[in-house]
Amino acid sequence: MIAALIIVFREVFEAGLIVGIVLAVTRTVPHRNAWIAGGVLGGVLAACVVAVFAGALSNLFAGMGQEVFNAAILALAVVMLTWHNVWMARHGAELAGELREAGRAVVEGSKSLLALAIVVGVAVLREGSEVVLFLYGVLAGGNDSGLSVALGGIAGMVLGALVCMLTYFGLVKIPTRALFTTTTVLIALLAAGMAAQSAAFLEKANWLTALDNVVWDSGWLLSDSSLLGKALHTLIGYTDQPTAMQVVVYLAILAATFALMRLYGTPAKAGAPAPAE
Amino acid sequence: MSFSPMLSKLSLFAATVLVAAAAVGAAHAQSATEIQLSYKDKKFDPAEISAPANTPIVIKLKNLDAKAMEFESKTLKVEKVVAGSTDATINVRAQKPGRYEFFDEYNEKVARGALVVK
């Protein structure tokens, strides 16, 4: 049971952190619960589909289907997170300011929610399919340990939900004014980390072989398979043996986010109406 | 800024990166050491495999069990789900000499093996 708990918790931990952050980011947006719940549900369903077709997925791209699939959904999450940040740079002030038209704010807000719901779905999908395969393997085995493993699995998921709540309540303690800056930085780092992970998957698939030298090895200091290392891996993309390509991609995403926010974000006091669609 | 134009710009950027990555990958032709490995009844066969140092390694893993397993090695930075009764290819980048343990994450205590790089 403990083994099952640990395996499941390890997988849902990352999704828990990400859902917690997204909940904090969208704190004031109407209807956010429905969107995020939709993201989680969509992720779970997609995880089941991926688990069922795991064999077929692996066989794509000369046996590198899993790696390419992971790289692609991570890239999708990076696009969504970056888009959210850029969008908030433009509309964040409107949403919070007294000038907002309630109706429009809801419409615009839901676009941003869609992006974040996709991010949540991707996070759940990535780790979820492994949990599904693990639990299915045990339950299909039909031995008497099935029940205890199922209990362990449920306990692991409850712990994952706890991580999510701790992240959320930790973040919303931050005063509203500082929260916006904090979440902007968090999301930018999250996106950069996911982009580097995406690059790592392409490296494993041998699709990306340039700059594949390991830049540093900080495993002696903080292994990325320890709990703290894993948390930092999710949050800021920490890895103890990054390749030059991963570092380049990481920095490129940070730079691109910053540049796009400067380019498309309107200064809060300019008062220029946003261009019509 | 409306949703679609910016999103399409970003997607275009992501697509460009992926295509560029694929092009680089196609040009890759470094010779790798290929190792056959099979997995049955929570055991790796052989339990210890070896490879020369400083060359890429390709592990061809046959999962002979009906259940899925997850091949994982923390030191080799590999994590791969292998569905029941299927084969998988695992690319490992060139390594320094040493002993690198791997295991089935779903049966971490019993299903273990090691790659020795010399």
Written account of the structure:
The complex is a heterodimer of chains A (277) and B (118). Chain A has helices at residues 2-25, 32-52, 54-63, 65-96, 102-141, 146-172, 176-204, 227-236, 244-264. Chain A is mostly helical. Chain A has one domain. The longest helix of chain A is centred in the middle third of the chain and has 40 residues, at 102-141. The radius of gyration of chain A is 20 Å and the shape is globular. The relative contact order of chain A is 0.17. With 118 residues, chain B is α+β, with helices and mostly antiparallel strands. Chain B folds into two domains: 1-30; 33-117, Sandwich (Immunoglobulin-like), CATH 2.60.40. Chain B is built from one helix and nine strands; from the N terminus they run αβββββββββ. Chain B has one helix spanning 3-26; strands at 33-40, 43-45, 48-51, 57-63, 69-73, 78-82, 87-92, 98-104, 112-117. Chain B is globular. The mean pLDDT of chain B is 83. Classes of the chains: A mainly alpha (277), B alpha+beta (118). Chains A and B meet through helix 3, helix 4, helix 5, helix 7 and helix 9 of A and helix 1, strand 6 and strand 7 of B.
Features:
heterodimer; A: 9 helices; globular; disordered C terminus; B: 118 residues; alpha+beta; Immunoglobulin-like; 1 helix; 9 strands; 43% strand
Could you say which overall geometry of chain B the principal axes of the C-alpha atoms support? globular
Number of strand elements of chain A? 0
Succession of helices and strands of chain B = HEEEEEEEEE
SSE-based structural type of chain B: alpha+beta
Question: How large a portion of the residues of chain A is in β-strands, by DSSP E?
Answer: under 5%
- Contiguous runs where pLDDT drops below 50 for at least 5 residues of chain A: 268-277
Averaged pLDDT of chain A: 85
Intertermini distance of chain A: 55 Å
Largest interface: A-B, 51 and 40 residues
